[in-house]
Structures are given as C-alpha cells and as structure tokens.
Amino acid sequence: MSEVLFRINELYKYFGATHAVDGASMDVYPGEVLGFIGENGSGKSTILSIISGMLKPDSGTFELDAKPYTPASQAEGIKSGVSLIAQEINTLEGLSVAENIFLGLEENFSKHGFINLKKMHQMALDVLVASGITDIAPEDDVRHYSIEQRKMIELVRSFFIKPRLLMIDETSTALSHVGRDELYKLINATKEAGNSVIFISHDLQEVLRVCDRITILRDGKIVTSKMADEVDEDQLKTLMVGRELVGSFYRTDYDAKISDDVVLQVRDLKCKGLGGVSFDLHKGEILGIAGLSDSGMHEIGRAIFGIEYDVAGDVKVVESGKSVKTIQESIGEKIGYISKNRDTESLFQAASISDNIAVHCMDVLSKSIFVSPSKMKKFAEENAKTLEVKMREVGQNVSELSGGNKQKVAVTKWIARGTEIFVMDSPTRGIDVGVKAVIYALLVQLNKQGKSMIVISEELLELIGCCDRILVMRDGRISGEFFRNENLREEDIVQKVV
Amino acid sequence: MKSKKLTRVFSQLSSLIGLILLVALFAILTKGTSLTMLNIKTVIGQSIILMISSVGVYFIMSMGMMNLSTGGIICICCYVLAKVGKINIPLGILCMIATGTFIGFLTGVSVAILKVPSFLATLCVSYIIDGLIIQLIASQAESIPFALYDMDDFSFKLPLLIVVLAVCWLISTRTKFGHHVRMVGSQEQAAIYTGISVNKVKIIAFVLCGILCSIAGFLTAVRSGTASVQSGQGMMFNTMITLVLGGFPVGGGTKSNISAPIIGSFMLQVLTNGLAILNVSTTIQEAIKGVVFLAIIIIMTNKGNIAGLFQSKNSIKANNTLATTTLGEKQ
Prior knowledge:
The complex is a heterodimer. Chain A is 35% helix and 25% strand. Chain A contains 18 helices and 22 strands. In chain A, the strands form five sheets. Chain A has a six-stranded mixed beta sheet with strand order 6-9-10-3-11-12, with helices on both faces. A six-stranded mixed beta sheet of chain A has the order 18-19-20-15-21-22, sandwiched between helices. A four-stranded antiparallel beta sheet of chain A has the order 2-1-4-5, with helices on one face. In chain A, a hairpin with a 4-residue loop joins strand 16 (312-317) and strand 17. Chain A is globular, with a radius of gyration of 24 Å. Chain B has one domain: Orthogonal Bundle (ABC transporter involved in vitamin B12 uptake, BtuC), CATH 1.10.3470. In chain B, helix 1 (2-29) runs parallel beside helix 11 (259-277) and helix 2 crosses helix 10 (235-245).
C-alpha cells in the first residue's frame, strides 16, 4: 500500500460562483477499488470528469505512477491509461458497435489509412463473447440497442482498453442484474491486474459491497476516507450529509386508510409495450408501480399523460367525468407528469428557474394573452420557496443546479399550478440519500395535502417505503398488487416482477 | 461578485457597444461625412425595412429555426400591391398583407404539422415565389400606383416603425406566446411535456413573420416605386446577419432578445452605408458582409475560446469523437 498509483494535488474547479471542487487532494493505491460518495453537487462527477480529461481544472495537478499527468482531452487520458464510464450514454449513434468499442483505437486495425473492418468486427465479436454478451452484433448501429446494452458496449470497451485507472460514474442504475454482474467482473479484473478503480454510486450498499476504501465528499471537499469494512451504511450517510440523519428514511405510518373516493380511472389502457391495464387511483393515495424497465411501467405514465401514440382505452378523471387523451387535456384536468429524463423532458436546461416555473403556469398567471414579467418573477420566487430550492436567485439557469435541486424545480412547476394528480416516473433516479429523503418527505407532504400520486420506480425498497399500494408490472400487464404493510419485503414483489 | 455583474452587463450591451464603435470607425474613415444629418437620415431610412423583416425572422430564429423566404415574401407582396393596387389601393394593401399571412401560414403548417425542416420549407417557398414572379413579371417591372409614392416619407415611415416595434416588443416580452417561442427554441421536448401547443406556436410565429415581411414589402414597394424581380433581393441573408450582429444566440432559445434585430439592422446599415461612402463597390460589400457574418458566428459558437481551436489536431478530433450524448430515450 506504500506506492501510489494516482495522486490528486490541491484540485480546484469553480463554475461561476459554485465551488464544484474546492481543494481536493487524495491518493489512489494500486489494486484498490475506491468508492466516491457524497450528496448531489458534492463534486464527485466533476473530479472524475477532470481526471478523464473532459474538463480542465482551475488549478491542481495529477500524478499517474509518479509521473505528472495532464490530459488535454479524453482521448489523451485513455492513451495514458485513464478511462471513464460516465453517467451519460457515451456511445455514438450512427457508428457501429465495433466502431464504438474501438473509438480512438482505430490504428490497431488500419494500414496506410484504411481500416480493416473485417478484422475490427472479428475483434469486437471476440471481446463481446469473452464478456459473455451474445445479443449484440458488432456491425449493427448502436442506435438499435437499449440504454443498458449501450452501457454494456462501454463496459466491453473498458475491458479492451485495460486502463491503469478505471473510473465508473453512477453506471449501475442503468443496468439490470446481469449487467451489474458484468460491471463487477470488470472491476475485479481491473483490480486483479494491479490497476485501480474509482467507483461512484448512490447505492451505499453497493458501494460497501464493491469497494475496498470509501472517500466521502461534501461541498467539493474531501471529508474523510474509510476502509469499507470499518463503516456501515448509517455512518456513511451521516458523513455525507454532515449531520445525524434522524428518524427513518421512509414513511413510518402503516395504518393510513386509503380513501374510497376514486380520482382517476384507468381502463384497459393499451399502447406499444402496454397490453391492457386497468386500475383506480384513490384520493390521497400514493400508488407505486413496480417492474423491470421494459415491463411497460414507464409507458403507463406516458400513456396516462397523453405522450404515447396510438393509445387505446380510457383514462377518466372522476371529478369532472372527462376522459383525457392529449397532454393539454391532462394538464387541464390537473394531472402532472414528471419524466424520468429530467434533463431533456421535464426541464428547460438553458432557461432560468423563473422561466421554468412561470412558463409552466402561464394560464394560472393570466387569463388573457398578456403576462407581466415582474409577476412571473414574483410567482417563481414564491413557489421556489415551497420546496426550498437551493439557488442564488430565480434568474439562475437550471443547468447549474444539482440533480436533486433540479427535481425540486420540476415538482415545483406542477405544484405551482395546482396539480392534483401527480404521475412521477423514477423521481429519485440519480439522486442521492440526503435529497432522496427530501423527495420522500415531499411525497408525504403532497399526500397530506390530499394530492394523489402514481410513483413509477425500479427501486422496490423505495416503493415499499413510500407507497400505500403497489402494482407490479410484467410484460405490459399488471401481475400483482400489494398493500402497504410492515411485513412486505422486496422478495415478495420480485417474484411477481420476473 | 461585482465584477461578475459588470461582465454580464457588458455582454448584454456588447452589440450596442459594437454599434457605437462601428459608427465611430466610419466617422473617422469618412472624415465625418457619415455623421451628417442627411446621411444619418439615410441610414435610418434604409434600416426601417430591414428592421421590420428581421423582427419577423427574430421570432422564427428564437424557436431555433430558419427563415430563408423573407426576400421571396417581400417580392410577391410588392407584386400583389402593384397589381391589385391598380384597381383599388386599400384593397391592394389588404391583399398584400393577406398574401404575407397566407404564405406564413402555409410555411408554418409544413414546418409544424408536416414536419419539414424549417430551412428546407422556407427555401422551397422562396424558390416557388421566385419562379412565379419571374413567370408573372417577366423582365418588365410592374409600377405601383402613384398615390403610394407619398408614403415614402419619414413622417409616415417612422411612426409606422415605432408602432410595429412596440407591438413586437410587447408580443415578445409581455405575452404568453412570446415566452413560448423562446421555450420551444430552448428545448422542444420539454416544451411539449409542459403542455405548450408547440405546433400552434410554430404556426403563429410563421404567420407573424409573414405579416411583418408583407409590411416590409409595402415599404420596399413605395420606396422603389416598382415591383420587380429585384424587390426584396438579398433580404434573406441580410435579416440573418442583422440578428447575428445584434447579438442573437445562433440556436435561439431563452437568451433571445428583441433588441438584436433593432441594433443589428442599424449596424448592418452603418456598415453598408460607410462602405458606400468609402466608394467600396457593392459586389465587394457583399463579400465583406459574408466575412463579417462568418467571423461573428465563429466567435459566438466558440464563446471566445478561439485559442482552443488551434490546439493540436489530435485533441480536437478527440473532443469531437467523444462528445457526450445525454441520457435520453432513443428508442
């Protein structure tokens, strides 16, 4: 443990007034898996982006194997043996699987400037098969593959590169169990070769299981590092948040009675990937929808809100007796939808918080075609307070906010316009403990106000913890129904899921 | 904090400062000729048509779209005014505005509902009009009614300009539509999920642009006294360079500001006028405009990071190939 594989000296990175990384120094030792944990906006991803060469630091230096390491770009980083599997999808559409795997490494297959495609495809097939992946063909365009499969392609790429330092940023959430096993295999292989891994995940249990040592970050600073076998989940949470997390994470009540009043009737809802689903949503109920990603669970939300095409069946708002088909009709009947793709679908990244909130509520703000800018700003300021969005001012761009705060803005938009029925698709995706608790508290808060919610999530524990009732989806149909009770365990639901 | 605020104010005012610098530059180069009252009046007079049509294009480009049919709409509006105006002048003006509105509507429908990319749709419209006009007018220019010649006067044009600008400013900053336009340009998918009727917004924007172009067409006709194949020529490019000179963000979106077409058209006219006083031939002027346009686009798209463009070849290639796509549904 004496020699150091990678060293970070006094790293600083500011984004405007935000101190994303504020003087971080640390060492990574050969053959270790180092976990990086911290709340959203604590600087984890920023540090990895800088190490990979994607971002430039304001100041600070790196040493790789005791030699200075200053990557000008990601490709240079890879050549030096530093590779990042980012949170975002990093495969390029329009290129084949093989081309993606060997991106920037084409010289291995080229002669006099011509690339030997056949050799490349064969090589790609070899590495894919070696990783136990048989459902991906090297010559196909990556756009034909799902997000998970594309992540696998990135993994395979890292297998091939055999980096000295492998960095994995919040990848497991996009992967199923099989994919995760591949990921862990890659981590182990890297470790056994005497190379190191930096691993970021919001799932603390996973971090504890996978990592040898865990470094905790808060507000761009490194708080401390702990050996994984010396700490437990609660200690980590406390270290991350910087204060004792009191009480339970989830709801504690088990005696809440669901009202008999139905607010939303869904009858035989059908669309692509959804084969006829019927259920009632009761007033003040938190209804969870569980399942695997392709079980039709996401389609339910999209079909109710009117996003999916060719929807058959009926979604009826009981109070008004109206059936809703389009997005406008749904919004008119006080249904709100929060997409799982927060950054592209539920928020305007390049717009201010004020614009995001106020433009969403134009019809509430004014009945005529005119609307006053000062009124919009005031409206946004007032509403941003309800969920305590962490910001400098409402004129600030949403893209500058951390994941949890973005989600707060996304929910605020709907609360501000008096939405009664919330459809939330994966509301805590990519959000960490401190903020997750806020989102759960938010669900309860909305619930107390008598709002009804449909919460779609792949995380069973969170559904068990929050929901009054859980519907389980399999192959586009409802395969099970569970009511809130203390003895409900994850395994019970899993049986219905697969 | 204070310096940060200053830089923000500076970046907002940068195009205004650019305008002042440009005026000063030509004042020196032309030894004061460009600042004579007569010349200032000429510049303002020339800016009016450009300003009105660029304000129209402003709404389109705020949505992240293009409008290449400005010149064409102006041209056909001139023709309609000349033809129908011979029968009855008010009817002529009405028909002219109806023509602009109708073309705007058709373009809007093909862009919004038929999903034709805006630059293609408007380019086609432009060619269709070109073809029609050449067929209709042949080489003979159509003269407009004499009574309309009086309209080419400051006492009419300036109030008209002020009213048009005031209305457009109101639309852009004080109406729901004005905000929606920018949100569509900012992120269309999010706009749809927010419940904005994106198609409606698009069609209205194109109609609005069509109306403004027909007003510009009216002013073009009364200024030249004829409707010819040349009417509105060069407008397509001039409106775009105007917006860019005025500091308009290339992709549109929330940072779009209606001051861009106003300041930009003054800048372009000061430039054109100054070059004319300096006896630079009109053909070379076009070339200069092209270079200026390209230069500004390069500066804007690279956000001042020009030095980064000249890094080693490898890193540029790497930056391009490893561009990250955001996690989104692509099925």
